[in-house]
Automatic annotation (TrEMBL):
Keywords for the protein's UniProt record, in alphabetical order: Acyltransferase, Transferase
Domain of life, source organism: Bacteria
Keyword set includes Zinc: no
Keyword Acyltransferase: yes
Naturally occurring in which organism (per UniProt): Pseudochryseolinea flava
PROSITE patterns: GNAT (PS51186)
Residues annotated as domain N-acetyltransferase: 3-172
Family matches, as InterPro entries: Acyl_CoA_acyltransferase, Bact_Acetyltransf, GNAT_dom
GO molecular function: acyltransferase activity, transferring groups other than amino-acyl groups
CDD domains documented for this protein: NAT_SF (cd04301)
Name this polypeptide is given: N-acetyltransferase domain-containing protein
Entries under PANTHER family matching the protein: AMINOALKYLPHOSPHONATE N-ACETYLTRANSFERASE-RELATED, AMINOALKYLPHOSPHONATE N-ACETYLTRANSFERASE-RELATED-RELATED
Length: 172
């Protein structure tokens, strides 16, 4: 399996939306309301990514991982400093049939390299409680749990936990 990682463009918004939608439908079943996951999620994500990619500012970026020409994963990093961190991983998703093949780790490494090159040294993300595979993956990649909060997501109140990397070295 040969994977390439490159900056995403507006032309990738449909592929990213499909990856995002399918990932949520698989991962968040039982965590978020089924009605939300089964409704118009793809069109919602399509509109979201079309706008998000166009509105990236400053040092924000989205990277897409591809096998040949098929999108297999993506990571979005935003300038949303909180928790005394320099950046925020808004999304990291890998297509279900290729999980466990290092794509998520490679996307994180590529993101960490960009963060370092732009003089940013720490990053955080949120994981919905119940997404145990993601939580364990981030812990293996060196993240530490800092805090939790309750949010309304997809019409349902859910608990989310913040994972933080104070040093990007562990992501490399």
């Amino acid at each position: 399996m040969s994977i390439s990682i490159r900056p995403a463009s507006i032309l990738d918004s449909d592929a990213i939306a499909l990856l995002h939608c399918n990932s949520w439908r698989t991962t968040y079943r039982g965590i978020l309301a089924d009605e939300y996951l089964d409704d118009d999620l793809y069109n919602e994500r399509q509109r979201y990514w079309y706008a998000k990619i166009q509105m990236l500012k400053g040092n924000e970026f989205v990277l897409i991982a591809e096998e040949e020409t098929a999108a297999v994963g993506f990571i979005a990093v935003l300038d949303k400093p909180e928790a005394a961190c320099d950046a925020f991983i808004d999304n990291l998703h890998v297509r279900g049939d290729v999980k466990g093949k290092g794509i998520g780790a490679n996307l994180m490494k590529a993101a960490a390299e960009i963060l370092r090159a732009t003089n940013r040294h720490s990053v955080y993300l949120w994981v919905l409680n119940g997404n145990n595979a993601a939580a364990e993956f981030y812990k293996r990649k060196g993240a530490v749990v800092e805090d939790s909060t309750t949010v309304i997501f997809g019409g349902k109140e859910v608990l989310q936990t913040r994972f933080v990397w104070r040093s990007l070295e562990k992501m490399l």
